[in-house]
Write a structure and sequence with these properties.
The chain has helices at about 1-65, 80-85, 90-95, 120-130, 135-150, 155-160; strands at about 65-70, 75-80, 110, 165-170, 170-175, 175-180, 185-190, 195, 210, 215-220, 220-225, 235, 240, 245-250. By secondary structure, it is α+β, with helices and mostly antiparallel strands. This is Potassium channel tetramerisation-type BTB domain-containing protein.
């Protein structure tokens, strides 16, 4: 009986002494498992990044094999065959296809005797189908001529559809009396949005308008009454407004004020 009591006490003392060691060992195992899990996740991310970079490099390598060289008016341009084959049949598509035998210069470029200024926008259209188009009528007309030469009907359509609705001046009722405006508002049907334009040099109504050289011309009209002018007055000014640059220009005034 005494031996059993001593043995039980010894085992209890040994177990109590081992408890802190076991707890410490469990904690170390937990930390080690956590570190291993983090390492595995890090390696998985590195593998994913490597695969993405590998795919990008492979795509670029394929583009080298697919590269076409163009000489537009003496300026070199490089792009992919796949880009030039987009859109409906056009000159660049036929020039770089295998349907016809086409000659190249000593550098292996296809020479096209056209203005290189607008060719980056031509390539942008073939790459994206919705390039940022120039705003001024002169630039748009120049790009339209290039698009027509290359046979890019889609780009010609984009340039032709670019129109703005312009509302200038006029009269509104304010406090039971008419108020003559000098404001300008523009509506873009392609985006469905309104924006404010530059104000007229002076408010006016009952004026004549016409469109010429990419500008809206405002001829004559009637201005508002004021303390200095108790009666409405007519003007003989001719003011031009360019909605693309939001600027204006004036012509020589007619001999007589009119509205």
């Amino acid at each position: 009986g005494l031996f059993d009591v001593l043995l039980t006490g010894l085992m209890s003392h040994t177990t109590s002494a081992l408890d802190p060691f076991a707890a410490s060992l469990d904690h170390k195992i937990f930390l080690l498992e956590k570190q291993v899990k983090q390492q595995v996740q890090s390696l998985a991310r590195q593998k994913q990044d490597w695969q993405l970079n590998h795919d990008v490099v492979e795509t670029i390598n394929q583009q080298q094999l697919d590269c076409r060289y163009l000489d537009i008016g003496g300026v070199p341009f490089h792009t992919r065959q796949a880009v030039l084959q987009r859109d409906q049949d056009h000159l660049l598509k036929l020039l770089t296809s295998t349907l016809f035998r086409t000659e190249t210069d000593k550098q292996g470029s296809h020479f096209v005797d056209r203005d290189p200024t607008w060719f980056p926008l031509v390539l942008a259209y073939l790459r994206e189908a919705s390039p940022v188009l120039p705003r001024t009528p002169q630039a748009r007309a120049a790009l339209w001529r290039e698009a027509r030469y290359y046979g890019l009907e889609g780009l010609c359509g984009l340039l032709g559809q670019r129109r703005l609705l312009v509302i200038v001046g006029g009269t509104v009722m304010a406090a039971d009396s008419p108020s003559v405006l000098g404001t300008t508002a523009l509506f873009d049907p392609m985006t469905g949005t309104w924006r404010d334009g530059a104000a007229l040099p002076s408010p006016r109504e009952s004026f004549g308008t016409c469109v010429g050289d990419g500008q809206l011309w405002i001829v004559g009209g009637v201005g508002p009454s004021s303390c200095d002018r108790p009666l409405a007055w007519s003007t003989c000014t001719v003011q031009g407004y360019d909605p693309w640059t939001d600027g204006g220009s004036a012509l020589r005034n007619p001999h007589q004020p009119h509205f």
